[in-house]
Amino acid sequence: MKAATTSLFMPALLCLLAWLPLQAAPLTEAQKIDALLHAVEVLPGAQFIRNGSSYDGRAAADHLRLKLRNAGGRVKTAEQFINYIATGSSWSGQPYHIRFADGRTVTSAEFFRAELKKLETPPKAVPAAAPASRSGSGSNAGSGAR
Questions:
Q1: Residue 41 and which of 56, 91, 115, 130 are 20 to 30 A apart at CA?
Q2: DSSP summary character for residue 64
Q3: Which of 15-19, 89-93, 106-110 has the lowest mean pLDDT?
Q4: Domain residue limits, the chain
């Protein structure tokens, strides 16, 4: 009797789990910072401008990681990372910029804030597709529309 109950219960449980919407857990602040670093690191054709010199994305990410390590535990959130690490030179006081492949230039603060907003905005739910009608009595039945 127990085996029969289990064999009936498991498919029902699996069907229920399949219908539950799966939502990813929110990113931790450390994950957000890592994602921001990755975003600049893989930005195609972009140049990171620091103190008048241009660097590719990998060099920019490496520099920001060094600054983050040097900050120790003082930077705990992605906002703090943007405000204290990723927006300007602590040596010269000049803001960092990013020049995209298309020539457009923005401050690194603008870039990182836009990236953070993307990270923190939940994805839009995709509506389930309506099941196809098998009766052939739909509005297009017999009209030749396909």
A1: 91
A2: H
A3: 15-19
A4: 29-120
pLDDT tens for each residue of 80-95: 999 999 999 999 999 9
pLDDT score, position 124: 75
Backbone angles phi, psi at 66, to 5 degrees: -65, -45
> Contacts for 5-12 with beta carbons within 8 Å, 24 or more apart?
none
Contact 108, 74 (CB under 8 A): no
Of residues 72 and 138, more confidently modeled: 72
> What residues form DSSP beta bridges with 50?
53
Sequence letter at residue 84: Y
Interatomic CA distance for residues 98 and 12, integer angstroms: 53
Which of 111, 108, 60 has its CA nearest to residue 88? 108
What's residue 127's pLDDT?
67
**HSE of 63 in the Cβ direction (CA atoms, 13 Å)?**
20
In angstroms, the CA 66 to CA 27 distance is 22
